[in-house]
């Protein structure tokens, strides 16, 4: 599992501009500010152990942390302002990477490129092309993240949970309580080979096209 030092290294990799201008001016800060003053439009998550790193650096003073059992979501304490503005150096990995996802070569167990999530839900984000140096840094960062087995386990669990949501309307905890097969599937994830974890991680990112 990533240590505080790992997160420090990861954040430094992405301390680069994605584009040549302030992207939030054109979209009204779609990815980080509630559009109606009540509900956030994006689900911003933390990697395993990322919460410990951020709390140690006062991130929780400006953002509420919501525990969804297997993933922690963060939302600004003030829905009308970005929760990262006063802790800019500690913007989470999810925030730094938005709206791009990795393209994975399963045979190599490696991220080879990135692409913008294409779902129409993300259309307020106007960015389609990024600066070359940021693109290379993002690929490097994704490989750094996925070189850690616990992060592969995390994304595999995300994938299984999303798939379960296709046939089950309750929460993750409810599914774990009433569905023995699903519960065993989740509990067995740490026993999967790295190859299988990479395959399911890839399925997760393909799922959120």
What does this structure look like?
By secondary structure, the protein is α+β, with helices and mostly antiparallel strands. Helix content is 42%, strand content 12%. It has nine helices and five strands; from the N terminus they run ααβαββαββααααα. The protein has a three-stranded antiparallel β-sheet with strand order 1-3-2, with no helix packed on it. A two-stranded antiparallel ribbon has the order 4-5. A hairpin with a 4-residue loop joins strand 4 and strand 5. Helix 6 crosses helix 9 and helix 7 packs across helix 8. The protein is globular.
Q: What's the rounded overall pLDDT mean?
A: 87
Outline, from the CA principal axes? globular
Q: What is the terminal separation in angstroms? A: 27 Å
- Strand content range: 5-15%
The total of helices stands at 9
How much is the radius of gyration in Å?
17 Å
Main β sheet profile: 3 strands, antiparallel
Strand and helix map with partners:
Elements lengths: L3 H10 L10 H4 L17 E2 L3 H6 L7 E5 L4 E5 L16 H5 L2 E6 L4 E7 L15 H15 L2 H17 L6 H7 L1 H9 L5 H14 L2
Antiparallel strand pairs: 1-3, 2-3, 4-5
Helix pairs in contact: 6-9, 7-8
Could you give a short description of this structure?
This protein is an alpha+beta fold.
Features of the shown structure:
two-stranded antiparallel ribbon; 42% helix; 12% strand; 209 residues; alpha+beta
